C-alpha cells in the first residue's frame, strides 16, 4: 500500500495552485529546495512520477492530478474535523480571517462585524483587503478562512476545494459629469454613451466587467483614461473627462457626479462568499457567513 503523507500532499496541492516551485515555497514559507525535496520524497513513497519538465518549469503529471482528485475529499473531511474540534473547544468563539475585495469591505464586511459585536461578541474577524481573484488563492493556501469575491473571478462551481455562497447581485450604475447633456435624459442606456470616453482600469476584473457590459450593449468602449481606484475614477468623471460604470456598492464614495441606474436589464456583478470545502461547519465561520448574508440583504430573516 502507498504511503500517504498529508504534509507532502498539501505541498503538491499548493504547487497546483501557485504554478511554480518558487511561488509554492513562498506561500508555504519554505525554501524552493525544500519543496522540491518533499515532492521527490512523495513521488518515491507513492511509486509514481508527480512532476515533469515543461520548459524551464515543472508541471503536474496525470498521476499527480489523479492523486489530488482522490485526496480532495480527505482535505474536506479534515476541515470538518477542525470545525468539530473548534465547536467542542470553543463553541461560537474563534477568529475568522476574511479576504475581501475593496468595495466589499465597507459595504459588507464592516456591517457584518458591527452586527457580530452585538450578537456573537466572542467571534473575532480579521480582515485582509485583496483583489477578487487573489482572494481565492489566499483561501486555497490557507491564508484566509473566508473569501469575498466576484462570481466572474471564481473557480468553477464544481471545484471540490471550495463551497461557494451567493450573496447578491450588485447593479452597475453609470457615472456622468453633473453638466453632461444626458445626465437627466429619460430612459438612459449604455448605447446612448457609446461615443463617450470611458474610464476604467487597464486590466483586471473591472476592466473585463466594463468591456463586457458595453459589448453586450453593442459597442466597444473607447478608453479615455485608465484608473483602478474609485476616488480617481469619480474625480475624473466629476471633471468631465469621461463616464464610468460604478458598482452600487461603491456609491458611498461618490464625488459630485450623477449616478444613473440602467434599469432591470442593466449590467450587474455577482458577489459570492467562499470557504474551503468543509469549512462552513466551523461555528465561528458559520456566524460570519450569516452576518454577511444579512449585510447583503438586511430584509432576510436570521
From TrEMBL:
InterPro entries: LysR_HTH_N, LysR_subst-bd, WH-like_DNA-bd_sf, WH_DNA-bd_sf. Residues 4-61 form the HTH lysR-type domain. The keyword Transcription applies. Pfam families: HTH_1 (PF00126), LysR_substrate (PF03466). Gene3D superfamilies: Periplasmic binding protein-like II (3.40.190.10), Winged helix-like DNA-binding domain superfamily/Winged helix DNA-binding domain (1.10.10.10). SUPFAM superfamilies: Periplasmic binding protein-like II, Winged helix' DNA-binding domain. Keywords: DNA-binding, Transcription, Transcription regulation. Belongs to the LysR transcriptional regulatory family. This is LysR family transcriptional regulator.
Amino acid at each position: 500500500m502507498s504511503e500517504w503523507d498529508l504534509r507532502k500532499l498539501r505541498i503538491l496541492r499548493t504547487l497546483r495552485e501557485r504554478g511554480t516551485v518558487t511561488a509554492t515555497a513562498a506561500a508555504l514559507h519554505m525554501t524552493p529546495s525544500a519543496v522540491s525535496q518533499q515532492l521527490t520524497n512523495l513521488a518515491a513513497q507513492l511509486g509514481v512520477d508527480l512532476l515533469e519538465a515543461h520548459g524551464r518549469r515543472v508541471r503536474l503529471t496525470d498521476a499527480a492530478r489523479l492523486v489530488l482528485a482522490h485526496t480532495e475529499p480527505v482535505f474536506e473531511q479534515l476541515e470538518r474535523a477542525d470545525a468539530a474540534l473548534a465547536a467542542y473547544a470553543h463553541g461560537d468563539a474563534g477568529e475568522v480571517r476574511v479576504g475581501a475585495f475593496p468595495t466589499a469591505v465597507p459595504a459588507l464586511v464592516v456591517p457584518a462585524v458591527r452586527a457580530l459585536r452585538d450578537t456573537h461578541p466572542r467571534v473575532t474577524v480579521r480582515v485582509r483587503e485583496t483583489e477578487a481573484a487573489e482572494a481565492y488563492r489566499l483561501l486555497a493556501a490557507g491564508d484566509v478562512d473566508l473569501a469575498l469575491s466576484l462570481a466572474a473571478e471564481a473557480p468553477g462551481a464544481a471545484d471540490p476545494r471550495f463551497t461557494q455562497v451567493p450573496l447578491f447581485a450588485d447593479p452597475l450604475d453609470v457615472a456622468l459629469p453633473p453638466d453632461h447633456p444626458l445626465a437627466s435624459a429619460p430612459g438612459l442606456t449604455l448605447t446612448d454613451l457609446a461615443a463617450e470616453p470611458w474610464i476604467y482600469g487597464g486590466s483586471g476584473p473591472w476592466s473585463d466587467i466594463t468591456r463586457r457590459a458595453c459589448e453586450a450593449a453593442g459597442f466597444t468602449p473607447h478608453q479615455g483614461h485608465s484608473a483602478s481606484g474609485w476616488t480617481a475614477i469619480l474625480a475624473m468623471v466629476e471633471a468631465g473627462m469621461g463616464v464610468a460604470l460604478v458598482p452600487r456598492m461603491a456609491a458611498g464614495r461618490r464625488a459630485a457626479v450623477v449616478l444613473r441606474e440602467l434599469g432591470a436589464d442593466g449590467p450587474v456583478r455577482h458577489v459570492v462568499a467562499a470557504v474551503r470545502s468543509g469549512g462552513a461547519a466551523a461555528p465561528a465561520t458559520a456566524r460570519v457567513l450569516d452576518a454577511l448574508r444579512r449585510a447583503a440583504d438586511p430584509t432576510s430573516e436570521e
